[in-house]
Amino acid sequence: MPTGPSASPAEVAREPLAAPRVTFLGAPFDLLPKDAVLDRLKDCSSAEPFAYVATPNVDHVVRLSRQPDLLSVYEAAWMSWCDSHQIERLGKLVGLDLPHLNGTDVMERLFAEVLAPGDTLAVVGADAALGEALRQRFPQYRWHFHAPPMGLAHNPQAWRAALDFVAAHPARFVFLAVGSPQSERLALAIVEEGRSCGTAFCIGAALEFLTGRKQRAPVLMQTLGLEWLHRLLQEPRRLWRRYAGSLLPLMLLFLREVRENGLRRAQKVIPERQARG
Q: Could you tell me the keywords of this UniProt record (predicted)?
């Protein structure tokens, strides 16, 4: 793949990830373990054509079942991680071994093991307080921040401003923190424009956990897969409806999965993905 000075992001495409991908509960998941993911991220640079990472969890797969047009957004992701202990455990019940990659865990390791002093990082979605907290916590990196208004997806001018920001601030890694599915839709739009470089993460509260603005669950709760319960107890008014409304749809999705594929399905690997131009 040409990446010399004469090549622009619009003229080249990120090579597909050489890793198997399966579809489970209607969402794509890569079968790349965490250490292999970190090794691949170490190779990422600000010169590579833009690509993004999606992190499907229970909320995502339920939304996908209701909005099937979103599937192409996840399928176009360079990586798609299983960010849910519940989905991981349901996968085991039908013979799938889905690596569980908690987004915050991976971000912690990214900052500890992958980033180098002087790396350029861009954030779409950080307010002034979070931006300042990141600068203070990680002063060794060059930061760029853009805080779009609420309702980004329905504001053409704000949407264009976000696209222009990413294109104008080439970064090794870009953090898209404008909520799901806005982050994923924005990431795909950036890819399709072909003006930008770097690797983006469609993340939720990971940066707030990294700066200490939000507290993670105790290690035992993380190990038991109960981090969702800790978050619910921390923010009950914001999260109870989301979690309560996802339980029954998730079970229905699992029953449909069992009906269609049986209890011991083979890992049906999606054919090799093509690079997006």
A: Glycosyltransferase, Transferase
List phi, psi (to 5°) of 24.
Answer: -145, 135
Domain presence at residue 89: yes
Query: Is 141 domain-assigned?
Result: yes
pLDDT digits (tens, 9 = 90+) for 86-119: 999 999 999 999 999 998 999 999 999 999 999 9
The neighbour count for residue 33, using CB atoms within 10 Å, is 14
* Global pTM value: 0.84
**CA torsion through residues 154, 157, 160, 165, sign:** negative
Q: How many domains does the chain have?
A: 1
CB contact at 8 A, 145 and 131 = yes
Residue numbers of the domain that contains 146:
21-217
CA distances from 57 to 81, 128, 233, 250 (A): 9, 28, 19, 11
pLDDT in tens, 212-271: 877 665 666 666 666 666 565 666 666 546 655 678 889 899 999 998 887 665 455 565
Q: Is 95 left (phi over 0), alpha (psi -120 to 50) or beta?
A: left
